[in-house]
Each structure stands twice: as C-alpha cells, then as structure tokens.
C-alpha cells in the first residue's frame, strides 16, 4: 500500500509540474570587494535590484511557465542568453531574451484570432482640474505596485470564433510566463546600464555613480545622489523618489514622476514630467513637453527653464518668498483665471513678458518660453482647452 | 506600453487572511474529531489521481490543438488596426503642416515620427515571431497611438496660441 501511495504521490507531483514549471536561468554570486563597477547590458528583461548586505553581488534569475507545452518552453529558454564575466575591476553581465519579458507575460490562445474592443483609439479628456500634490504623495506613488488584474487586463480583448464573432477570452486559454529575476548589489557600487525593452525596479538608494542608456525601458528608482550621474532615456517610463545631482535626458518618456530634484539638469522633449518639489540649482531645457511643478524647496534660490512649444504648469512656492520672471515670445500666460498672450513680433525678438514679486528676492524663477503656455496656480490649476 | 501588467498579483498578497490567535487549539480539536481510521484510505486518492490524469491529459491535448492555431488571423487583425491608425496619422500630419509655418517645428516632428516608425518596424519583427504575446501587441498599438497623440497635442497647442492671438488682435 505504501508503494501505491508513493507512486500516486509521485504522479500527482509530476502532473502538477507539467502545467507549471520553474527553470533556473542564472544563479551566481560574486565577491564585490574587488569589483568597482557593475556593467549591466539588458535586452528584454524584467529585473528587481535590491541591496546586498554581505558585500557580494548576487544574481538569482528563474522563469516559471504555466500552460506552456514542453516544446514552447524549450523555444523560450533557447531564446534567452546570459553571460557574466569579470574584466579588471568590472563585472560585466549581459542577458538577452528574444521575447521581451515582464514579471508576468500573457499569451492568448484563440483558435481564430483576437480582437480589440473598447477605447484603443480614444484620447485624453480636454478639461480638468489638477490639485497641488505634496512631495510625500510621490514617494507613495513611486512605490505603488497596484496594477490591473488579469480580468481587467482581458477586458478589452476578445477571441474570435469560427464565424468571426467576438467572444470573451477564458483565462484558461492564456499562457503565463512569470519572471523572477533579482540582482542584489552594494548601495555604493558604480553602475553602468544599457537596457532595451526591459523593466528595472530599484529597491535601494544608490550613492555610487550611475550611468544609464535606456530605450523602451521602464525604470523605477528610490533615490539617486551621485553628482556625476548621467541618464539618457528614450521612450519607456521613469519614476523616482529623490534625484540629487547629475544630468538627465528624457525623450518621449511617459509616466515620468519624480518626488524631488536638486542640483541637476534635465534636457527633455515630447515628455510630460511631474515633479513634487524643485530644489536648488535646477535647470531644465525642454521641447514640446508638459511640466507640472508642484512646489519648491525652502530657499531654492534659482530655477531656470528654457522651453519651446512647451506647457509649464507651476504652483507657487509655498515654503519661500519668490520672484517669477517670464522671458520670450508668443506665450500664453494663465494667471488668476486671466489669459494674456505675448504675441510674436515680426522679428521674433525675445523680451521680458511677465513678472510676479520683487526682482530683489533671493529666490528667483526664470521661465524662458517661445510658443509656450504657462499656467500658474496656488492650490489647483484648471486646464480649459 | 499602454497597460502595464507588472505587479499583477501583489494585491493578492495584501488580502491574505490573518490566522486567529487560537488557531492551533482549534486545529487540534478538529484533527481529533477526524482521526478515526477509515477502511480504504487511498480509494479517494486513486479516484482523485485518475481524475487529475484525465483532466491534465485533456487539458494538454486541448492546448496542443490550440498551439496549432493560425496566427494569420491575429496578424490580419493587427494589420487592420495598423491601417486605421496610419490613415488617421496621415490625416493629422496633413492638418499639422497646414496649421504651422514653423519649418523647424515640422522638421523636428518629422524626425520624431520617423524614429517612432523605425521602432515600429522592430516591434513588427517581434510580433511576427510571437504573434500571441500581449506585450508585443500592446507595444505596436502604443507606438501608433503615440504618433497620433503627439500630432493631436501639437495642433491643440498651436490652436490655443493662435486663438488667443486672434482675440488679442480683435481687441486692439
């Protein structure tokens, strides 16, 4: 009887594993004492970076398949290549996946295809009121991990039957691939990151030098405080708590929310950027972006924006007295529910357009704008278009 | 991407019920009640195993059938969406260049749209290799939607400025 039980138990375990299989991709640890820089080259990867408390760099990368055939699993695994090697004092880690991975990837199986329903071609509302948001709101939001459930996710997708009729997709017909990839690093290690079609979530404050080139990558940081940090981000998403020091370049980045900025330069285009608090020595150059500046730190001293075809939404500083000056041409100012436009002159010459406060104030906001829209608000800003 | 399926199961962790303080004692009481020996303790296990085998084999056969589905239908669906978007993008592009006299602006938007088109071609290759992957399908739609959105946004921006200039001229 015992043998029968063992056989049945073994069969049960084996059968259950047929439909949910976990595979190790890369598991290794490196002593960080002799490594000054971690060079990450990522393509199609979903990874979380956590703090290592034993001065080692740990890689722990597994993938779990659900509803995948053995052949499909083999194909997926063959499409993932990972290399790690130490060159001088640098640890080089490269990983590539033919299929871009997220923490969960769903593939819908439908005999006759899928179709979209709902609002895939609708656009944003044109009228709204936005309230000033405190810095702590951004800390909470940037740590937020609440996203749609599978049910919500499938809401706008339909499977087609043999006669082309759209049917709801049964979640049983969805193949699931779960990635669990964690890299543990010391907080002061230097990072060189090149990423494409990836997702990186940092769960630690980074004090080392961070140099990032990212494309189509979702990036989520805690604080970054090295003055020599250098970021060049195109497409994808970016969220961060406190950014202190460095240069940031954003080209068409969405969902860009930063709790606070201090002693840094931002160069942006085609991007909406929401900042909780602007600190000292911040300079922004923008083309056709939308900025929301919720507050300024106490004694921020000087803030400058140079913009073209941009929208600036500025809440007055709450913690300091201030002087605001706008300079440029062809810019609509919306101030105390009043619109006034500085028209372009024939020579397109720039001039002082608008001031608030006394020029002698030690806290100065200089907004240079051409073909722009600038809205000012105390508690809220209303957008009527 | 338009939708992000990351962190999908995090809510479930939050909803885990807490065990009551006396759960251990309650468990032991329940265990004592049910600890009488039964005549054939493995009969139910055999039935369950057979049922599970049948279900699993059936499920895997079902999946095998599905794996042979024709991706052409999905590709056709996406191509139809692509055609609809591209037609709208072209219309908005024509509206945009008719609205502005700023050649530098037009040039900059042309460059941006070309970059997005180049990205789209790369995603299309992924889509042909993996037609059922929702992430890839969404990346395609998101790319097209972005092109349309930036063209609509800049026109709205220019119209707001022009509208206010006209009002100002009329007032003068």
TrEMBL record, chain A:
Residues 1-22 form the signal peptide. Keywords: Signal. It comes from the Bacteria. This is DUF4097 family beta strand repeat protein.
TrEMBL record, chain B:
The chain crosses the membrane at residues 42-62. Keywords: Coiled coil, Membrane, Transmembrane, Transmembrane helix. It comes from the Bacteria. Residues 99-126 form a coiled coil. This is Anti-sigma factor.
